[in-house]
Amino acid sequence: APIGGGVVYAELRRPCRVMILVNPHSGRGQALQLFTGHVRDMLAEAAVPHTLVITEHQNHARELVRKADLSQWDALVIMSGDGLLFEVINGLMEREDWREAIQTPLGILPGGSGNALAASVHHYSGEAEVTSAWNEELLLSCGFMLCKGLVRSMDLVSIHLASRRRLFSFLSLAWGFVSDVDVESERYRHVGAIRFLMGTLVRLASLRVYQGRLAYLPVVEAPTPARPETLACQGTAGAPEDSLLPGLDQPVPESWTVVREEDFVLVLAIYQSHLAEDLWTVPGALADDGAIHLFYVTAGISRPALLRLFLAMEKGGHLACGCPHLVYEKVKALRLEPVSPQGMITVDGEVVEYGPVQAQIHPGLARLICG
Ligand code: ADP
Ligand code: MG
Fold it and tell me: How far is CA 363 from CA 5, 232, 268, 339, 353, in A?
């Protein structure tokens, strides 16, 4: 495999057969036009045969990949926002043969209003050293990566909800300010990616504090015990065991850190570099760094200080703001137990049931077209 920037890549086989899933309603409703206008000819020139599948409803893609004959496909590519990839990953993980299925290389072409993975992939490719890319420029960059067909591994995070449902996530788990903005800004989806900035300004005006308990298992550079403690919260349908997580009704293990504060403005666990096209949240992150990057902001932060953090995040400068309310930890697992009776929790930008949640990293479980 070729080596690029110290990272080992595999290559898609040639000729490769690609299924491209398009959500015609994502973003400003232009994903299909963007595909035909900017990507189709590029793929034809690079001799990348593909089959276009236009999703007809929510969870269409999830059901399709759950049942698909994956031996027919060398890659699954999503032309939408992050929400459609979330469907595809969970569809793959729901299969009996999840272990093989989740090894199918996954690609992203930004067609949504929330294109965090596309922005991250562009960043990992090294093209983003100087500037980040938006809109057509980001689309072309991701289209070019698809033509190159380099593949590397990507961490997934398994997420347990109070109903005992388990989800797989490739991007983020958010509570408080970030998830509120994500959901409330849906109503400005016609303006595209700028909806997050608009949502941020609106939310700032009605800044809320959320009560809850947060605990995590830090990443320690010291050697870990050969065998993990056998807490083994067994998931459904045989999918991978979450060896770091006790049941949600059990206390967290001794080795975990319990955060003393219980008043938060936001809690954000993220495992890619970007939260949005213009939010470079984790300067050092890689798709397969084996860590959940946990951020939280405690109550007492002023509105201007919070706005400053988000503005600084465009260039990845928020951690250098010296804000005493912002905490950053690299963790392998975490648990969040909201106490406030109402609120919003999102996973990869999608709303999930509100209540206690816990999560753990599964290093390199999936594969990503990138680089
Ligand atoms: P955006 O970034 O614009 O939000 P997403 O890819 O996140 O784009 O898609 C938004 C939502 O639409 C997701 O919840 C996804 O599951 C859902 N979805 C996917 N395909 C369709 C469809 N054909 N019709 C309606 N909703 C869809
Ligand atoms: Mg979305």
Answer: 20, 17, 19, 30, 25
Question: Ligand 1: which atom is nearest the Cα of residue 56?
Answer: 23
Q: Given 74, 82, 278, 288, which residue is catalytic?
A: 82
Pocket of ligand 1 (CB under 6 A): 23-27, 55-58, 60, 80-84, 87, 112-114, 189, 349-350
Please determine whether the domains at 3-155 and 160-364 fall in the same fold group of CATH: no
CA dist., res. 19 & res. 251, Å (int): 44
Q: What are the distances in angstroms from CA 319 to CA 122, 284, 293, 311?
A: 22, 12, 13, 12
Domain coordinates in residue numbering, the chain:
3-155, 160-364
Select, from the ranges 25-29, 95-99, 186-190, the one with the highest average predicted confidence (pLDDT).
95-99
User: Would you identify the CATH topology of the domain 3-155?
Assistant: Rossmann fold (3.40.50)
Tokens (6 digits) for 231: 């807490």
DSSP output for 257-268: EEPS--EEEEEE
Consecutive H or E run containing 146: helix 135-148
Q: What is the mean pLDDT of the chain?
A: 91
Residue 236 CB neighbours (<10 A): 10
Counting from 1 in the atom list of ligand 1, the atom nearest the Cα of 114 is: 2
Tens digits of residue pLDDT in 46-60: 999 999 999 999 999
* Residue 180 annotated to the active site: no
Q: Is the ipTM beyond the 0.90 threshold?
A: yes
SS3 content of the chain, % helix, strand, coil (to 5): 30, 30, 40
Class of the domain covering 160-364: mainly beta
Q: 83 C-alpha to center of ligand 1: Å?
A: 6
